[in-house]
């Protein structure tokens, strides 16, 4: 519910129907799945399979009403493309051999071009930081989020190691985002880091540890937020990566803080710290 409200407020659910022609499917496939709808709803041959068409149409209407994201309906398109291919095969069978060859050649070229374009911008095969990589990242918006996690955790470990010995063993990482928490939990094992604590999504259910931490290494928070939680917070180290790429899940500039003296008792603070994203 919280994520849906966010998506609506950020206009991610706008133009749902139009986005079915681009974001949800490869544009090259649009004629094929449209032919599938025609075959299922407008032809006698498609009548026995019409339920497949309704399996697409009903969720489509529901997502329009509920203001869903464009990709929610994506799993329905392969069955429509299969129906379109079946109709196209029967249509071609009634035509001349020359027509069949032309249509098959155009179809093969179109799908090859569309497939290569899709492959180029959805699979992380471009060298990081190249013009191709930046183009692909601008198109899908997610490649940047694959950069910098090991460097982030290595920096957290250095901050932990810089603490006085009496604080070091009990220090915990407080992560603002599930990505940061996951990175600490995955890569932090090599450094002997405790699993991160976080109020985001299901991380909140795991709690803050027993005993509660006295010293916190805060990752992903701005200074003003931390000042409202702890009596003392000092910047300890900046976060960077060798590619100079901004990971939008981490943000920029990104500073790791060491915080002490929580203003509320941990149980009271934790009750109001749950959030979603």
Could you give the order of strands across the largest sheet? 1-2-4-3
Task: Profile the largest sheet.
Answer: 4 strands, mixed
Task: Count up the helices.
Answer: 12
Task: Give the rounded overall mean pLDDT.
Answer: 91
The fraction of residues assigned to DSSP E strands is: 5-15%
Give the helix proportion (percent range): 40-55%
Q: Specify the structural class.
A: alpha+beta
Gyration radius, rounded = 26 Å
Shape: elongated
Number of strands: 4
The end-to-end span amounts to 10 Å
Mind explaining what this structure looks like?
With 277 residues, this protein is an alpha+beta fold. It is built from twelve helices and four strands. It has helices spanning 2-9, 16-19, 30-42, 50-66, 77-93, 97-122, 131-140, 149-161, 165-168, 178-187, 223-229, 266-271; strands at 172-175, 215-219, 230-238, 255-262. Strands 1-2-4-3 form a four-stranded mixed sheet. Helix 3 crosses helix 4 (50-66) and helix 3 (30-42) crosses helix 5.
């Amino acid at each position: 519910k919280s994520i849906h409200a966010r998506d609506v407020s950020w206009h991610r659910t706008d133009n749902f129907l139009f986005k079915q022609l681009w974001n949800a499917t490869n544009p090259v496939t649009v004629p094929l799945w449209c032919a599938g709808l025609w075959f299922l709803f407008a032809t006698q041959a498609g009548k026995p399979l019409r339920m497949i068409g309704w399996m697409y149409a009903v969720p489509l209407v529901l997502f329009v009403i509920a203001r869903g994201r464009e990709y929610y309906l994506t799993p329905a398109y392969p069955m429509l493309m299969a129906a379109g291919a079946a109709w196209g095969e029967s249509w071609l069978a009634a035509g001349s051999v020359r027509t069949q060859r032309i249509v098959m050649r155009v179809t093969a070229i179109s799908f090859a071009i569309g497939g290569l374009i899709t492959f180029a911008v959805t699979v992380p095969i471009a060298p990081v930081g190249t013009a191709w990589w930046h183009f692909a990242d601008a198109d899908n918006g997610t490649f940047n989020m694959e950069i910098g996690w090991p460097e982030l955790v290595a920096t957290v470990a250095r901050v932990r190691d810089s603490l006085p010995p009496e604080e070091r063993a009990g220090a915990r990482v407080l992560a603002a985002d599930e990505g940061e928490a996951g990175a600490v939990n995955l890569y932090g094992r090599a450094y002997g880091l405790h699993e991160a604590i976080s109020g985001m999504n299901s991380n909140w259910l795991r709690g803050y540890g027993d005993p509660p931490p006295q010293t916190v290494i805060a990752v992903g928070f701005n200074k003003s937020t931390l000042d409202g939680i702890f009596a003392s917070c000092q910047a300890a180290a900046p976060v960077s990566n060798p590619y100079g790429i901004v990971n939008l899940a981490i943000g920029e500039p990104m500073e790791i803080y060491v915080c002490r003296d929580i203003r509320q008792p941990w149980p009271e603070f934790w009750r109001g710290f749950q959030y979603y994203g």
